[in-house]
# Entry
Amino acid sequence: MGYIMRKRTWIPTRLLFVIILFALVISGEALWTFSGGDPRGEWVLVTEAVDGDTISVGRGWRSTKVRLIGVDTPETVHPEKPIEFLGPEASEFTKKQLEGKKVYLEFEPSNYYDNYGRLLAYVVLQDGTLFNVELIKQGYARVVAPSPFHRYKEFRSYEQEARVKGLGLWAAKDICREIIGNRSSKIYRLPGDAGCGRIKEENRVYFDTEEGAIKAGYRRAKR
# Structure
């Protein structure tokens, strides 16, 4: 009887071990997807496109919000701002390109997080494409530099190309292509706003961020 009981106990345990091992071998991809990526590296799974320039990714067993470095797409989800020109299109572009995909994150060593606690990163696709640049090239985003980043000049050159081609944000002559203030009226307009074509060049003041315009004493133009 002792032998039979030992046998009945030993077989299920070994069988369970074999099943677990088999599952780990054949389900590596599924486990990678479920976990959201390699917790030791920077490869991650994009789980959601929050808007054009912000995504949620899986890192280890956690979900992390990532803000793309150096680019700014029109607002779609800001609680205190209306949906801006080309915002839905930029969000949809990011969703189609990134959701459900594995991407690689690269960082600026001097600045890992923004003021909202979001991870700042360059998002690289599996074919090596830098997605931050794609947003600029397609005219879905303008370049911003709330903090220094080493690709600034490169990004600006791609933005200039998009402007010359009249893509996206830069399509309409009267549409603002940057944050532009009117020195005379102390009013600023954001990319996508109408009315910049009527601001005389000598009265134009250019800002990298909306916060910078506000700090300089300018107020947002009424819609």
Residues 3-10, 24-35 have pLDDT under 50 and may be disordered. The helical segments are 2-26, 28-35, 87-98, 131-137, 152-165, 210-215. The chain has six helices and eleven strands. The longest helix spans residues 2-26.
